[in-house]
Structures are given as structure tokens and as C-alpha cells.
Structure prediction request, 224 residues.
Amino acid sequence: MKKILAIVCSTILFTTAKSQIYVQAGVNLSNMTTSQPSQTQKNFSLTTLNVGVLDRFNIKGPLSFETGLLLEGKGSKVRINISEEDSYTASFSPFYLEVPANLVYQFTFPKKMKLFIDVGPYIAMGIFGQTKSTGNIGGVDFSNTSNIDFSNTNTNGDDIAYSNANRLDYGINVGAGLDFRTVLIKVDYGMGLAQVNVNQIDQASNDNNKYRIFSISLGIPFKL
Prediction:
């Protein structure tokens, strides 16, 4: 990850002549592709945030390349019905440092407004977060909050609270937006390809245990 951050910083420093550097902040609606055999499970989106600095520099004509560093909130809420009497809910709220690598294509309109679409891979590293679970099992109410462990070590068997998560996440981003010169409005969809929960019992499944994130963001360009 340190090498990736060094590449990002070098890219920003040496491409400012043809680049558009901007600060971004926005809202993420995050969910997970998870399932539990022999249990009834319902997932809910978790509202979190994204913030960071991005550098978009021209390659040729309407085609640009974009990278930078973002703090991305991810996670999900889930409710598990073990039986008619026993159930619990869990909220998993991790934060990642994420480096995107997007190709951006721009369409220019009158008054210099631009419509753009972007697509590309990302890589991210988990840095902190919390998980909270509440419920009633066997007639006993419980509530537990703990910090997320990014040690990548399976310790608890099946762990729907996601108290132990893989530190590395990677996937693909696709998005679109409008560039009004003084502000950018963006919508993006991130499709994670890495399985998140170290202790998930269905690790072999390619369809489960991955991030799905829809985001709406504003960008404010500035010049160095």
C-alpha cells in the first residue's frame, strides 16, 4: 500500500500542468452480498461518507486518467432470524483508504459544461471501524460493540458481526457526472471483488461477502 501511495503522490506532483485537482466529499450507501445457510437474513444499506483528493489529468482529447486518495466508509446492516424467538441485528462500519485508477471520458456541451463517464479498478486498505450487534437469544437481551480487527486471522468461526475483516479490498468503480468548472457532481457504483469477512462460513462462494457501494459526491477543483 505504501508503494501505491507513493505512486499517487508522484502522479499528482508531476502532472499538475495538464490536470484538474479537486477535493471530493459525499455520501455512501453501502451494502454487502452475504447469505447465511439455514437462517433468514435481510441486509440493509448503511449510510456513511467519502472524502479525499483526486487528480484528473488529460491523456488525449476527451480522454483523461484519474487517481488520488479517498477515505471511504463501507459496511452494512443485517438482521438474522435464527428462529421465531431468537434474532439479532449487526451493524458493520469500517473505513478504508482507497486509491482509484479511472479512465474518464468527457463530453463537452455549450457554456463549457462537461458530462463525463468513468470506469476503473480500485484498491483499498482497512484502517479502522466498529461493529455493533444487538438482539435476543434464548430470552436474553444482549448488546456488544467492538473495534474491527483487520488481522486477517480466522478466530471466531461464523461471524455475522464482521468483527474480523480482511484488510485488503479491491474491485471496480463505474460512474458518471457533470463538471461545471467550479464544482463537479458525481455518482459512482463500487463493486467489490474481495471477500470481506475473514470468519464467513461461505468463503468459497464468489457471490457472497463483498462490498456494493453507491455514492453521490461533490468535487471542488483548485489550482496549485
About this structure: The longest helix spans residues 2-14. Residues 12-16 have pLDDT under 50 and may be disordered. DSSP finds one helix and eleven strands in the chain.
